[in-house]
């Protein structure tokens, strides 16, 4: 019963999404050059923008970083491993040799609030105007409850809390002379910033019980993940509310995105792990799930469509929105 209460609705929507993914994967394989119209229409709209992507070395973050570079942005990959970050940056540079200088790698470990503050302080010291912050990095459903060095349940901190702090430090303290000048002179002409949070349809299974926020009691990996994604969605809405009521930031935009069920380490790990099937069935179900994954999950390239829309879509449609399943 508890299993159904926790996950029933999210699993039902997930099943529908798997079915739709099979349809999309068939289209992708038959029509490989198909690309949704809004990407083509906005192909140049990131020219000159500065974008930070947390977890930009893998999965959705990596695919988005590459698309952003391709469309003219300067991208900082904020990664917990400099080695993995550098490898990803080199791969993007090889794909786009004319844009070698458009990718940077910085160290950011979201499991450490100190690392978040260090990252923000370094960036702030450079007095550059940040246009887009993509709060993407995440972990999903570790079977055992683990704490970060700061003492928080790890999904709560990595997926939600550290991203909140990062946004707070970077946006509050955007003191670049060009930015403050533009904002002071004319808030309507200032380049509005976009704050994008990767949420998930699993937020529907979330339940934020403030007497058990760190899940000291009745921990399951999925519960922790769903709660962190609900908190992330609420964070986007709270940021939008704060932007609207601020004089200098009233044109800034916060938005939450469910990228789809995407073929990445995170989704594959969960699909083939014991969290879905239980320990007994896992050895049988995991190999089947591994074979089916490329059909049940969409490619990271396709997931970028949703993020690109959050980044470049019209403010009137995107501000404060939850973008999911191609709808906003
Ligand atoms: N895939 C899906 O179906 C799906 C669906 C809904 C929402 N999402 C969300 O989309 C986002 C990206 O997920 P993904 O599927 O692309 O997963 P992924 O391929 O596993 O990538 C996750 C990224 O987060 C980074 N990361 C993990 N812990 C970190 C930490 N402590 N500090 C800094 N970076 C950290 C990872 O770095 P390392 O490479 O060093 O591990 C990696 O770069 C997540 O927020 C996820 O919840 C995914």
UniProtKB/TrEMBL annotation:
Transmembrane intervals: none
Keyword Oxidoreductase: yes
Keyword hit for Oxidoreductase: yes
Record-linked PANTHER family: NAD(P)-BINDING ROSSMANN-FOLD SUPERFAMILY PROTEIN, RETINOL DEHYDROGENASE
Protein name, entry field: G10534 protein
Gene: g10534
Family that this chain belongs to: Belongs to the short-chain dehydrogenases/reductases (SDR) family.
Keywords in alphabetical order: Oxidoreductase
């Amino acid at each position: 019963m508890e299993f159904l209460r926790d996950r029933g609705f999210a699993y039902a929507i997930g099943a529908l999404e798997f079915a739709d993914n099979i349809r999309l994967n068939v289209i992708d394989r038959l029509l490989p050059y198909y690309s949704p119209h809004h990407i083509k229409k906005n192909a140049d709209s990131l020219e000159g923008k500065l974008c930070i992507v947390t977890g930009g070395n893998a999965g959705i973050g990596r695919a988005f970083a590459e698309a952003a570079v391709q469309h003219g942005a300067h991208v900082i990959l904020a990664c917990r491993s400099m080695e993995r970050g550098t490898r990803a940056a080199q791969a993007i540079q090889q794909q786009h040799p004319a844009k070698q200088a458009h990718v940077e790698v910085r160290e950011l470990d979201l499991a450490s609030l100190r690392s978040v503050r260090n990252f923000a302080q370094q960036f702030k010291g450079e007095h550059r105007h940040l246009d887009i912050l993509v709060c993407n990095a995440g972990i999903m459903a570790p079977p055992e409850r683990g704490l970060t060095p700061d003492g928080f349940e790890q999904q709560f901190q990595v997926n939600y809390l550290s991203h909140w702090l990062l946004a707070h430090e970077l946006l509050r303290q955007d003191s670049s002379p060009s930015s403050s000048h533009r904002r002071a002179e004319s808030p309507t002409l200032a380049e509005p910033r976009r704050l994008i949070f990767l949420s998930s349809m699993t937020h529907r299974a979330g339940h934020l019980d403030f007497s058990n926020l760190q899940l000291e009691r009745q921990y399951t990996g999925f519960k922790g993940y769903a709660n962190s994604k609900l908190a992330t969605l609420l964070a986007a809405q709270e940021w939008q509310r704060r932007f609207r009521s601020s004089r200098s930031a009233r044109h800034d935009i916060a938005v939450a995105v469910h990228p789809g069920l995407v073929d990445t380490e995170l989704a594959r790990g969960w699909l083939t792990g014991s969290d879905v099937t239980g320990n007994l069935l896992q050895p049988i179900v995991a190999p089947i799930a591994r074979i089916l994954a490329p059909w049940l999950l969409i490619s990271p390239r396709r997931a970028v469509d949703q993020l690109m829309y959050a980044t470049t879509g019209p403010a009137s449609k995107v501000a404060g929105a939850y973008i999911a399943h191609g709808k906003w």
